[in-house]
Design goal:
alpha/beta, 8-stranded parallel sheet, two-stranded antiparallel ribbon
């Protein structure tokens, strides 16, 4: 991930101010969701068994940190690698534990339209606020076919949906011209972009000014400050699994225009790069879930095709984690 610094004097692009939504009704399309919404790392004991204790520990950490919502079954949550049974169990456990204390987003992306709808129906029954849709990711799609697909999905969805731009994984881009048409449908209430492309994101942020009732989230941890500058509503950032108070603090400092606090927290955010990039070729997921297990939160078991790190690799993660914690701003870790 490449840090793109905010230049001195950059003018903040304004969108209507929004209070982070903490009591959204699943069928409501009035409240715009905003703030820090961690994409939950799914705690597992084995390939088809949740680490329930670890899940509850992590949810309680999020509550104490003041996060504004939670995103289940995304890329960080290994959603596409999990069985449909365990996806349903995760949705049920999270909804039961949170008891409506914050919005819940649930990934339902699938190559099968029927399975997508089944998961969306289940999510609605469990009280999920909105589903998240990345598009079908196997066959190449012409733009007209992609538009027709999104229209067909919207007509059958039982609850609102976010569109999830993740081209590195899906081979599909939600181009601004497509979003301009799709976002006119009331079922689509926002966009999450994980492309890491700030030129694209700025175009989408400009477009979103035409949809003041819909949300825009950035998914790249180190681009969160710049995303906020160009007008996004918050971050769905994987690092918030490890350090939720850091990301919440950064978001709050930005909203309060607390420049000195924001500068300190941006420096702390930059320090996470050493953890994310400590192994050449290793995924962000591998180091992050390992770090979460070293913090004593949950097991480091991964669903296939990922595997737990080797002992010497875990030791390296442990050393980096200790260094980050030692250097951290008081109270932010």
């Amino acid at each position: 991930m490449t840090q793109m610094a905010i230049t001195e004097g950059t003018k903040r692009q304004e969108r209507p101010e929004v209070t982070p939504c903490t009591d959204c009704h699943p069928e409501s399309q009035v409240n715009r969701i905003a703030g820090i919404v961690p994409p939950l790392l799914t705690p597992l004991i084995d390939d088809d068994c949740l680490d329930i204790d670890g899940l509850h520990l992590q949810l309680d950490r999020f509550i104490r940190a003041g996060i504004h919502g939670i995103f289940l079954l995304g890329s960080c949550g290994e959603g596409p690698s999990l069985s449909y049974r365990i996806r349903r169990e995760l949705i049920h456990e999270v909804a039961s534990h949170l008891q409506g204390r914050m919005p819940i987003l649930a990934g339902v992306s699938d190559t099968s339209f029927v399975e997508l709808m089944r998961m969306a129906d289940y999510a609605a029954q469990e009280g999920v606020t909105a589903v998240v849709l990345a598009g079908p990711y196997y066959y190449p799609l012409a733009s007209d076919d992609f538009l027709r697909y999104l229209e067909a999905v919207a007509e059958q969805l039982p609850i609102p949906a976010f569109l999830y731009n993740m081209p590195s994984h899906t081979k599909l881009w939600f181009q601004p011209s497509l979003l301009k048409r799709v976002l006119t449908h009331p079922k689509y209430i926002g966009v999450k972009d994980s492309s890491g492309d700030m030129n694209y994101f700025t175009q989408v942020a400009t477009l979103m000014r035409n949809f003041p009732d819909k949300s825009l989230f950035i998914g790249s941890d180190f681009l969160l400050p710049q995303g906020l500058e160009v007008g996004c509503d918050g971050g769905i950032c994987g690092g918030a699994n490890l350090f939720p108070t850091l990301f919440v603090g950064l978001y709050n400092a930005f909203r309060r225009n607390d420049a000195s606090r924001l500068a300190l927290l941006k420096k702390q955010l930059d320090s996470l790069k050493q953890l994310y990039t400590c192994f050449e070729g290793a995924s962000f997921l591998s180091t992050t879930k390992t770090a979460l297990s070293l913090l004593g939160i949950c097991s480091d078991h991964f669903a296939e095709p990922f595997h737990s790190l080797k002992a010497q690799e875990k030791q390296k993660v442990h050393m980096i984690l200790e260094r980050i914690q030692t250097e951290s701003i008081s109270g932010m870790m």
